Amino acid sequence: MRSNQIRLARVLTALLALAGTGCGYHFAASGTALPPSAQTVYVTPFGNHSRTPGASELLTVYMKDEIAKHKRLTIVKNPADADLVLSGTISDIEEMPAGFNGALEPTTWNYSVSVNASLVDNRDKKVLWTSSGLSTQGQVGGVAQAVAASSPQFLLQNLRARDLQKMTDYQVYYAESYYGEQQSLQAAASEIYDQMSEGF
Predict the structure, then answer these.
(1) Cα 181 from Cα 112, distance rounded (Å)
(2) Does residue 8 or residue 191 have the better pLDDT?
(3) For the chain, how many helices (H) and strands (E)?
(4) What is the distance between the alpha carbons of residues 24 and 2, in angstroms, rounded to a whole number?
């Protein structure tokens, strides 16, 4: 029973991540816009112009996971061995209060990630796809009362409903804000893959 709940939570989280992306709902990319002869890709470590330390490393990992999941391209460690090279930069990560209590203290927070990225044919250096200002969003609770402990997002975290009752508002905010950043970066990786492989 528990494994079915976790499976359902993962499916719902993936759908919610897609709903929060700039292009709206879409199915998994088939890679039809990629050159048929391209079999390998090198993912250049993403740059980070945001004020969030470690975000570029996370996005690079999520991007590799996303590419591997679709099984269309093989990731290589050396750019000289790659048919394609993907590179990009996080231009901004914003955290904005989205809901307030009666004392005008934030109870929920919105997270948005803005990324510039491009895909280059490594043989002739032709730019196959580029996107400027690709943006994804996520939202989390900032206090225990605003966290939906039954939501798919919460079930995927390393927390339980009983844990929330023992945490201060600051602890809840800190834990949820970290998850909000992760959620937005994962959504960005998914959107980058979909756009670069479908050519839109």
Answers:
(1) 8
(2) 191
(3) 5, 6
(4) 30
Q: Which residue has the tokens 């290589």?
A: 76
Task: Pull the structure tokens for residue 25.
Answer: 């709902």
What would the pLDDT profile of 139-179 be if each residue is shown by its tens digit?
665 444 444 443 445 445 555 555 555 555 545 555 666 67
What is the distance in angstroms between the CA of the first residue and the CA of the last residue of the chain?
40
Q: CATH number of the domain at 2-198, please?
A: 3.30.160.150
Strands 84-100, 47-48: pairing is parallel
State the CB neighbour count (10 A cutoff) for residue 19.
11
Residue that is written with structure tokens 């112009």 in the block? 49
pTM of the model: 0.69
Beta strands in the chain (DSSP E): 40-43, 47-48, 74-75, 84-100, 106-121, 127-141
Structure tokens at 119: 């895909």
Q: Which of 95, 116, 151 is nearest to 44 (CA)?
A: 116
Q: Is the pLDDT of residue 32 over 50?
A: yes
Query: Residue 61's closest CA among 200, 188, 197?
Result: 188
CA dist 25 and 105 (Å) reads 33
Distance CA 198, CA 26 (A): 11
The answer to whether the CB of 37 falls within 8 A of the CB of 180 is: no
DSSP lists the bridge partners of residue 109 as: 97, 140
Q: How far apart are CA 6 and CA 2, in angstroms?
A: 6
